[in-house]
Amino acid sequence: MHGFPYEMKLLLNHLVKEKYFNIATLNQRLRCFDFSYTEVSDKPSELDDKVLKNPGQKIRQSASKMWMLAVYLPLLIGDLVPEGCEFWDLYMLLLRICSIAASWQIQPDTIPYLSILIEEHHSKFRELYPDKTIIPKMHYMLHYPRQIVLYGPLIYSWTMRHEAKLSVIKRASSHGNFKNICFTVAKRSQHALCYHLNCGKPFLAVSLQVSTMSVEVPSAKESKEL
Q1: Are 77 and 29 in contact (CB under 8 A)?
Q2: Cα(225)–Cα(157) distance, rounded to whole angstroms?
Q3: Which residues of 95-124 are buried (b: 16+ CB within 10 A; e: fewer)?
Q4: Is this model's pTM higher than 0.90 or not?
Q5: Smallest Cα–Cα separation from 86: which of 128, 118, 120?
């Protein structure tokens, strides 16, 4: 997730330390924020003040909730941060990078601009957080421009949908089965698919059209010849 949990935790700790707001204010705004009906299922969970202060713990959110929190954070607390805050500007720089990385279409002129943004972000991060390390996900960002040149927009190869499917598998496997977990996961996945197919509600991006067809079964003699 582009290092959002790591960098967001550093940012929130700094803003709270500067007494621009507290975590209770952020959580209250998070509860009252008007998410659209398509986003309610991915509404971020409230943050724990103890987790933010503990260097050994990370912000625990699912991938979709973390993405939602990262995108809407400027709307939640942006008015509480004074203009010219370099730590906030660094976070906005990360959002700009991620908005390009998550675009469905990217113009060729945008690729060198993305390289400049990534270089500026990493240099600024080292300047503002000199005692913090560059994590692997931040290093991978250096390869974004070349990956876009070779394979096109990164949105076509990101793992968000795989993370969503993995969360379903995790829930299906967390019921004390220690003998044949693969069978349990497959069976419950089939049950879920049958439910969606029979409930009458569309759950696919495109509608399915099924028509009858006839299949000619070869005779025994023809089968031997084959």
Answers
A1: yes
A2: 46
A3: eebbebbeeeebeeeeeeebeebbeebbeb
A4: no
A5: 128
